[in-house]
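Task: sequence design from structure.
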């Protein structure tokens, strides 16, 4: 089986009808492709058996997690070049490459079969979620999905996320460190919610307690944080005790559908709604609406995907579903806004933070790579490889505008339709976040000025 790399390169280029943009280094020591390009290293031909058994993304993911394929050179560049083969061809590229009846696909499969070695295919890596049965997004199934993602070791997450332990998009300014950018994001959320001393805040999907701690320490809020991850809850409670904030913060292992102790003055949901699913999203919105006081605010921080031409054709990414966020779903931001308003909310502000998330993910990848040996010891080699691949690929997806992330500020209106928001809420400063009375006075002043200008213009 001499020169496996050249044979693989020829098969791939015949399938794609264009030169392969990366080098191939095969298990037999052979190498093929542009000499100055980063290399895709195929360490064992088992990787080809995985690809034949599960063509496409899932087969490649299994080989990556098992360590049977790797990259030499810049991971982002390799991913960018490979992903570009599809992205640069347009939205229909996947449909043009994969049909089983396509002679090129059949020839590619036969070529791989010759190189792949004896069957049967290897078992999936241990890090792959076991297949679930039954309807999506029941309480039990959601709890299992959350546990798969978050209960992989607090020590591992501490290495990746850094001291802030914030697992969502940071808010970057020139010269910020990751810790400063995460602090600024938490503060931005608090200011958008208009938190003040004594306010009751419900933090849905509270993670390791960072939002709860920031809101209690800096704004005097009384916070209830809920999560389905027992490891997160234990870590959050420990941090809260160390901060001396146990009298202001309660952390519960609880489903959002089971919270019944409203009303709250404000609700934050940061990076949690992606787990809710389309079949439950209206219920999620209605439950949060019911938990808010009239005039209360919701800050929903959520990843969004681009709309599909045929929304019924949307499917969960195979790698993400099997290894990262089981049952996770993304929705276009317009759909999220519509569902929140159908539940009774008034959407008051949408801020897109797409580029901020790309920067955040690159920092997390750098943390993981810097602490690679420790991260492997804290979890497993396969799990560390999963996180490295998904975070790097996600960074590129944000940069290429394949996905985005948005903070939606919504309010439960007062009975008469009022919002208790200032006229220029987007300033998000303590001075701009006026009381309702001051906001109305400001409106009266502005109205008087407009009327006065109109009268002066009429006299002229």
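Answer:
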């Amino acid at each position: 089986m001499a020169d496996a790399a050249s044979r693989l390169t020829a098969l791939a280029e015949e399938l794609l009808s264009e030169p392969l943009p990366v080098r191939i280094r095969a298990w037999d020591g052979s190498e093929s492709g542009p000499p100055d390009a980063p290399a895709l290293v195929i360490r064992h031909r088992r990787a080809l058996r995985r690809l034949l058994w599960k063509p496409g993304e899932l087969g490649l993911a299994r080989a990556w997690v098992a360590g049977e394929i790797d990259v030499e050179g810049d991971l982002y560049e390799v991913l960018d070049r490979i992903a570009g083969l599809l992205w640069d061809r347009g939205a229909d590229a996947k449909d043009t490459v994969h049909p089983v009846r396509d002679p090129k696909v059949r020839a590619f499969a036969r070529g791989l079969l010759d190189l792949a070695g004896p069957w049967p295919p290897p078992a999936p890596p241990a890090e792959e979620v076991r297949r679930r049965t039954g309807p999506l997004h029941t309480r039990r199934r959601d709890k299992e999905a959350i546990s798969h993602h978050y209960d992989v070791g607090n020590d591992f997450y501490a290495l990746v996320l850094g001291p802030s332990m914030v697992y969502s998009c940071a808010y970057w300014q020139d010269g910020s460190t990751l810790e400063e950018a995460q602090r600024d994001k938490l503060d931005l959320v608090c200011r958008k919610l208009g938190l003040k001393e004594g306010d009751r805040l419900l933090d849905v999907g509270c993670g390791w307690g960072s939002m709860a701690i920031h809101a209690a320490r800096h704004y005097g809020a009384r916070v209830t944080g809920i999560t389905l991850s027992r490891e997160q809850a234990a870590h959050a409670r420990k941090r809260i005790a160390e901060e001396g904030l146990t009298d202001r913060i309660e952390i519960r292992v609880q489903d959002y559908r089971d919270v019944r102790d409203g009303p709250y003055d404000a609700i934050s949901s940061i990076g949690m709604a992606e787990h809710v699913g389309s079949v439950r999203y209206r219920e999620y919105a209605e439950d949060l609406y019911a938990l808010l006081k009239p005039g209360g605010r919701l800050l929903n921080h959520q990843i969004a995907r681009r709309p599909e031409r045929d929304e019924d054709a949307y499917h969960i990414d195979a790698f993400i579903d099997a290894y990262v966020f089981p049952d996770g779903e993304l929705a276009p931001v317009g759909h999220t806004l519509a569902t929140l308003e159908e539940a009774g909310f008034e959407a008051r502000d949408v801020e897109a933070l797409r580029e901020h998330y790309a920067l955040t993910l690159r920092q997390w990848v750098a943390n993981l790579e810097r602490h690679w040996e420790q991260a492997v010891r804290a979890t497993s080699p396969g799990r560390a490889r999963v996180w490295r691949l998904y975070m790097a690929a996600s960074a590129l997806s944000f940069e290429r505008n394949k996905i985005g992330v948005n903070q939606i500020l919504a309010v439960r209106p007062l009975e008469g339709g009022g919002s208790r928001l200032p006229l220029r809420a987007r300033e998000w400063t303590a001075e701009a976040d006026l009381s309702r009375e001051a906001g109305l006075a400001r409106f009266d002043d502005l109205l008087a000025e407009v009327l006065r200008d109109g009268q002066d213009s009429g006299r002229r």
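The chain has 18 helices and eleven strands.
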